Amino acid sequence: MPVCSLCLERERHVKANDPDYNEKFFYADNRIKTSKYNIFTFLPMNLFEQFQRVANAYFLVLLILQLIPEISSLSPFTTIVPLVLVLVITAIKDATDDYFRYKSDQQVNNRQSQVLIRGCLQNEKWMNIHVGDIIRLENNQFVAADILLLSSSEPYGLCYIETAELDGETNLKVRQALSITSDLGDVSKLMDFDGKVICEPPNNKLDRFTGTLYWRGNRYPLDNEKMLLRGCVLRNTEWCFGLVIFAGLQTKLMQNCGRTKFKRTNIDKLMNTLVLWIFAFLICMGAILGIGNTIWESLIDTNFQVYLPWNTIQNNVVFSGFLTFWSYVIILNTVVPISLYVSVEILRLGHSYFINWDLKMYHSRTDTAAVARTTTLNEELGQVEFIFSDKTGTLTQNIMVFSKCSINGHIYGDVYDEFSQKMEITDKTACVDFSFNPLSDTRFKFYDSSLVEAVKLEDPAVQEFFRLLALCHTVMPEEKSEGHLVYQAQSPDEGALVTAARNFGFVFRARTPETITLCEMGEAVTYQLLAILDFNNVRKRMSVIVRNPEGQVKLYCKGADTIIFERLDPSNEDLMSTTSEHLSEFAGEGLRTLALAYKDLDEDYFKVWNKKLLFASTVIENREDQLDVVYEEIEQGLKLLGATAVEDKLQEGVPQTIACLGLADIKIWVLTGDKLETAMNIGYSCNMLRDDMNEVFVISGHTLVEVQQELRTAKEHILGLSRVSAAGDVEKTDAFSDDSVFEETIIAEYALVINGHSLAHALEPQLEHILLDLACLCKSVICCRVTPMQKAQVVELVKRHKRAITLAIGDGANDVSMIKTAHIGVGISGQEGMQAVLASDYSFAQFRYLQRLLLVHGRWSYFRMCNFLCYFFYKNFAFTLVHFWYGFFCGFSAQTVYDQWFITLYNIVYTSLPVLAMGLFDQDVSDQYSLRYPSLYKPGQQNLLFNKRQFFLCTLQGLGTSFLVFFIPYGAFSDIVKEDATQFSEQQVFAVTIATSLIIVVNVQIGLDTHYWAAVNHLFIWGSVTLYFAILFTVQSNGIFFIIPKNFPFVGTARNCLSEKSVWLIILLTTVVCVVPSLVVSFLRVDLFPTLTDKERSLRRVRRTSSRRSAYAFSHQQGYGELITSGKNMRMSVVSSACSPEREPHSSSWIENVIKSKNEVSCISDESTELKQSNRLQSTQSEPDL
């Protein structure tokens, strides 16, 4: 039955090789679209987005008012030109960004794939593929759509795929076709295939698929193991055929991508509110002046009707006041000039270029520079409170290294010196020579030669250890040339372990469904593969059963140590105890561990067990449970061989970056598709999880009730133990009823780890508040086994309830959804394609660059933008409100006090460049100080530099400046005379004096507010003053008056006015009176209420008071005398060092003295604990001083 495309799809019906049937359902084609606009929708949609800015709508209304000649005393071009300019510039920028998204879409849509059409395979573009088509994929090809696997070149319909674009994992996964379709390997058979699939509707669940295949009168259940999803890559499989089930935007990958959202900063939203406030203030001023006009006209102006008759429209005093109201609305509109938004866009563009040009964020090895892909979010980089990070490829390099192992109770992997002291392994440490093995991997490095000697001496335990590693896995080998092996592993751990076995002489060469071929110490040995007992999250182990050439049947097992130890033979008790100690040592180093064991099987026993296995593998219901029971039966009585320790290499600088961002009060949550154990190991490696934490809560419930109970238990544990009073006593009262109040009182450190299936329940409306409260009480949060959509839901949860700025960072297509959801999205140019980068706002090559992006560029951008806005509102209120005061002295006639050219050029020429220089180049502290003291980042998170209070203060300052700029000259002109004893009676002289005073005052004020002076600041500030006088004398000269007398009426005013000494005295007096109060307030604020920045700046001045220093004092530091007398820096034998325990308390004192002395000098924060961490962090960083 046809289904309307507008109706909700309940289930999907797909029939192979029957396009007429499938077309009835109006399924989506395979075209994707991530761009927002097309040719027809760009103009209306873009204008709609731009006019969401209240200021743009405000100026449009003003423009309409200026077109009415009865109320406008200004030309409409003063508003038309800048408004159109802003709209055009913004539209061009938006169009350019969207064009790049369109090009990316076209690149994907135009990829080629082979489609079975009318009995033959034809190349078709991806966008022309439809649901129900049968397509052929070849090795290393991307899967074009979500397809049902029908057949492949491998036996039993197997194929191998890489899912990095979906879940971030580069390991291979196995998919298998139904046995009934696995022989459909040629075109003729596929043409006759007319199976019908009924399955679930499109959804975003990557790990689940439910459907049924109807063919030849039979029903065959379908699950996720039969599906190849769009975004996967076919590996180690020559070809495969599949039936398209979901296409285009209905594929699971695209369902997880989310929509492209229009992102606006908090400052943009605040400015919308402020514009409404200013507009209300403007209405009030217009109303006051309009009422004043009505009163003036009724009481005074009637006496002048003979000389100043009313217009024909102006027939009564009330209507006169009404027209005057609108005239003043137009005159006073410059309190929010359109040039503000032009300037903001210029600043953001400049800040973006500074990010692009930063060589300290350039990765030379991959030739990748940092790129600001948007220009609208720079200042929000200085306000981030939550970072949501992917793990694989973002925090880690996704490179596993075999580091250590424990075999038969002996640790291998450590290096010792001649005094039997453990040495730290560095790049200069000599590697083991594997030249005895021609098949070794030259990239593999190991440093303990004793393990190689044990292999060469044919130690049975060591050889069995590496034999197990070479046999117990699901790795696929690919021998591109003789001896050149490439392993495709389902997990990076397996690849590392098999590579280790290869280098130690047990080389995995080949596999078939029935055999595994090794090269053991140069000899080829083939094992018969009898069974694979596969890994899953419940079993946490895998086993293989093989028959060796001697006919012995053996079971080899590897898995989590707790699982393996439960299944050991009692005779292994001592070895298990020793190995447990070794595992604890490995875990303390952040290494990923596995325990290894084996078992000799009796032939008769195996035959009986194998029959049970065949039966369990063919049942329809509860197949997995029955297989687990059979597996459990044979995996008992194991003999322990040892344990492995693998290092998952972090990207360079990840622990230091996380620690530094933590000192800046930025919370980092890791959202990963990896399993729980892997995520926790990485958490320990990058110091998000530590052994000294009070508790690490693991939420792994499978039902809503279980998850709710686990969350509540964890929260009650924290609240019950961690509420501390001022006296240090534990409080268990209801005083802290609001979680946000006592988050700062938590003194213990906790971490939260939650699984994907538990997170699905925790994100339900009834539990999301408990989850968020618990997560915010924890120092670290790790969510594992999460889907891309769940990542976005976690980000949205924090955005919605915490009202904090969020940043998401990732490198794969599975991160696109959260990158689009967060306020700021950052893409890592890594190994998993460019989808994350294309969807991001900023991109770079390494996670460590995030520290500089936020603490330097983000902080500077926020600081500069806030100072720019404060000064901009100040100078415009000072400029505009002079008209308000003048209204009381001009009969409320809506006459402007300034020359028309001054009004036009004030924001465009006279004051634009100095404020742009401040917004582009000003910095309160240098970049190295920003990194050294992460606490300086906190004002941005607390939104201290520009908020409603700061806006009120800067407008109040502008109001005061306008009052003084008007009334000081007004009062002076009423008492003084010119040098020739005549009066200053001209309004034009008064206007020039006020304008000149205003220009000097606002430029001196910006000079005082500038923290960092560069040549461009001097050029723009003093150049603007000079340019003002040059233009002033030009527009008021005789020559230009004779050319256009109507437009330049102030002829000769500047020359006559500014030649008087008394005028310059008035200007000087006005400048001093306007500037001194703000100068005094600034000095008092720094002395009485210093900020962190003020303290750091004063500290720098103290350090630079003298350029002459004693060389001894410069190169030595307090505490080293005690170090020498303590003997701690002397090389001693093991015996002597062990015999001096009494020295330890004394040695700790000099360390405390050194730290104390450092803190006394470098303390810029009120909390000494934070500073100690900051100083320790400084020593781990390699930022050069400028």
UniProtKB/TrEMBL annotation:
GO terms for biological process: Golgi organization; phospholipid translocation. The keyword Repressor does not apply. The active site is at D390 (4-aspartylphosphate intermediate). It is found in: Endomembrane system; Membrane. GO terms for molecular function: ATP binding; ATP hydrolysis activity; flippase activity; magnesium ion binding; phospholipid transporter activity. Keywords: ATP-binding, Magnesium, Membrane, Metal-binding, Nucleotide-binding, Translocase, Transmembrane, Transmembrane helix, Transport. Mg(2+) binds at D390, T392, D811, D815. This is Phospholipid-transporting ATPase. It comes from Monopterus albus (Swamp eel).
